[in-house]
Each structure stands twice: as C-alpha cells, then as structure tokens.
Amino acid sequence: MSSANPTNIAPPPVPKGTGRRWRDIALLGALFAFVIAGLAGLAAATGWEETKHQLMQLSLNQFLILLALSLVNYLFRGARWHLFSNRLGLPTTFVQDLRHFLGGFAMSVTPGRVGELIRMRWLKRETGWAVERTAPLVLMDRASDLAAMGLILAGGLALSAGGIAMATPVAILALAAAFVATRPTLLAGCVTTLYRVIGKFPRLMARIRTAARSLGIFSSGPIMAAALGLGLIGWIAEGYAFHLLLMWMGADIGLAKAIAIFTFATLAGGLTGAPGGVGGAEAAMVALLSLEGVPLDVSIPATAVIRLTTLWFAILIGLAIFPLAERMSNTAART
C-alpha cells in the first residue's frame, strides 16, 4: 500500500464570501490608518500641553455645556441628512440615517473626506442603491453647510463692531459654491467645462454629472428652507459654544464676533484642503483672536479646547458608532 503524499492533497474550497470579508478588513484597516495619521497631525497643530492646561481650568459643567452644544450641531445636521434621504427616496429610517451620519465622523480627518464615501458604502449595502444614486445626498449636505456657514459669517460681519480681515471674500465664496452646488444644470455644466479643460478622469466626471443632474429633486422651497434652518441652528450652536468659552476665559469679544471668527476659521480650514481643516482652522482662529487683542496665552488654549469639543468630539462619536454601523450594514448585505 502506497503512502499518501500530502503535497498531492487538494486544498479545501474557499468559503463563499471569504474574499469579500478580507477586502472589507483591508479597506477598514487603511481607513483607520488615515484616521490615526489625521489625529496625530491635529494633536501637533493644537498642542497637548495647552489643551491639558485649559481643560484643568474649566469646570466639569462648563465642559459638558460645550459638548452639549456640539451635540446640538451634529443632531440637527443629522436630521437634515434624514430630510435629504427621504427626499431622494431612500428607504431609510431616522435612526438609520443618524447612524450613518454620525458614524461617518470617524473619518473626519482623513484625506478626501472619506467619511462621506463610507456613508454611501453603508447605504449601498443596506438599500442596494449605487453610489451614483446616493451621491446627490452628499453634494446637498456639503452645499447646505456652505450656505448656512456663509450666511452666519455674513450676519456676524454685519453685527460686529469691526470687520474681520478677508472674511467677506470667504463668505461670498461659500455662498457662491453653495449656489452652484444646488443648481443641477449649472453644476453639470461646470463639471463638463472642467473635463474639457483637464481631459482626464472621464468615468469620474460622468458620475459627477449624473449626480449633479439628479439634484433637481431637492430644489423645492420648503425643502431648501428646512435644510437651511437646520444647518443654521447647528452651526450657530457651536459658534455660541466658542463665545461662552472665551467669556469663561476672560476674553469676551462679543457674541457676533466670536461666532464670525469660529465660522471663518472653520471655512478657512476647509479651503486649505487639509483633512478636517487641521492646521488652517487653528491658525486662522489664533490669528483673528490676536487681532482682537486676545493674548496668545488665552487664544491658543481657547482654540485647542474648542477644536477638542467640536472636531475631536465628533471623531470620538464617529469611532463609537462606526463598528455598529459597519456590523449592521454587513448584516443587511447578507440578507
């Protein structure tokens, strides 16, 4: 009797779906690597020592108030995401949409705002809708933020005793971008013109044009008014938190100016293209506070704390919800 040769034994069949699971694991690993890199950059930009020192000066109640106002922002913008989802015709519930919206914050400091891509990935798994069909949801969310922040900045400038350097052009740019992004024909035309100029990425440009043309469903007055109202409440809440923080630190520059500085810094950070506006937002905030006579030993820790209780808080919420959203979307994809 001849002995069996182990080298001739065929390998067991690979279970169906194993390759997909490994691809998912690899993708998540890469995404979290981006998050870690972004957090390291944010820590270097704001400084751990200043953050620690200022936190020790704040009472627990004051700290909780700042977090609560940030949570108001996230919840109201999450409600806006649900409004757009329903308008688009997605078969999702409010809890489901809120899970997607908040879970995407885990990717707030990743290059290219991967958070939005994750949300569309979850939607594709749970509803079967292709990315091209859900892309208008992301475009409207971004455009609504730009419109709300542009109006807040313009209002803050009008109510402030003195102007903020370069704030008017930023407000105009934000409002112009929001206007273009919410006009399907105009946005599609801009994409076509861009493609003719660069002559690259034909498939990507075609997808963006397809998404742009489907924005008309959001153009009704009541929908736009409700979306703008939710965005205004959310962002004003965070601006008010910055005002309270400056008051508690003995640097009261006025409500309108504090909100304007916070909004301008957030927009300016976004214009730099850095993940989460890291670096640009902090630099703008410190510089504008210094122009208002706020000393560096107050402006630097104040900037660190407000970023901690806004951007960092959002990331922590996202990291807490991300595993649940990923698990539930995987479950939905298997059924």
Automatic annotation (TrEMBL):
Per UniProt, the keywords (alphabetical) are:
Cell membrane, Membrane, Transmembrane, Transmembrane helix
Transmembrane residue ranges? 25-46, 58-76, 146-166, 172-195, 215-237, 304-325
Q: Which Pfam families match?
A: LPG_synthase_TM
Q: Does the keyword Chaperone apply?
A: no
What does the UniProt entry say about where the protein is found?
A: Cell membrane
Keyword Kinase (UniProt): no
Coiled-coil annotation reads none
**What is the membrane topology listed in the Swiss-Prot or TrEMBL record?**
Multi-pass membrane protein
Protein known as = Flippase-like domain-containing protein
- What is the organism of origin for this protein? Octadecabacter dasysiphoniae
